Amino acid sequence: MGRGKGIFFIMTGAILWGIGGTVAKKLFQQYGIDMGWLVTIRLLIAGFLLLGVQSLKKGPASILEIWKSKKFSLQLILFGLVGMLGVQYTYMASIEKGNAAVATLLQYLAPVIIMIYLFVSKQSAPTRKEMYAVTLALAGCFFLLTNGSLSQLSVPSLAVIWGLLSGAALAFYTLYAVRFLERYDSLVIVGWAMMIGGVALSVIHPPWDMKVTSLPMEAYLYLGFVIIFGTMLPFWFYIESLNSLSPKESSLLGSLEPLAAVVTTVFWLKDSFGLFQWIGTSCLMVMILFLAFNKEDS
């Protein structure tokens, strides 16, 4: 895959993922959909569809090849549980407790977490521009979460905790996925990771426990959007982009995700954003773009 195609994949997926989070919030608020059930069902259906696409493209044997290697099969299980399920569950929990805009912005601390990890593991030292970006990230989080008040958070504390965990899970997801791409197709990796995460979560949130027969047609359309456009395509595009972009680049060039989430949260769901929260949002967006266009100079 060429670099231009990789950039297209990551930016398209980012927009869909950001909008998908807002649609999921509507399902929680307006239709009483259980968060755990939604994560389970979206993982199972999206994973099944991705593996189905791979099977049609290259044959059923191609989706089973990864399980022939004990090393990679164990790593895939870890990736599915900690990476895929970790990202999906923490992100949705942050949306449920707060809103999609804050959850997505907190998740996009992942580039900073990746940068810190690469520095601690002595793989890459941060540049001067990256240090400036960390300062912007800290300032942005302060304004976003407090709306300028030193006495209390403007966002529920549980939403903050889940959002920070989501950022850490996305960092792990991004770094860990690279090891699979030299040997296996992205459809196989993402499809099985989703199936693994969905099956594991089914133990706690069985997909058959939710009564959805009484939902209006509009709710089914939203549910379909979350599964296809808010889960299946974004995660496939994200992994696919790693074929031509570095983990740091992929996590940074997805900067349209928080913008899409903020715009749809404020203008579609009509959630209020205070002045200082807009300032914090601007700081975080500048941080992402600052790092995205950072040349590796000191």
UniProtKB/TrEMBL annotation:
The keyword Transcription regulation does not apply. Residues 5-145, 158-291 form the EamA domain. Keywords: Membrane, Transmembrane, Transmembrane helix. Pfam families: EamA. Its main location: membrane. It is a multi-pass membrane protein. This is EamA family transporter. It comes from Paenibacillus faecis.
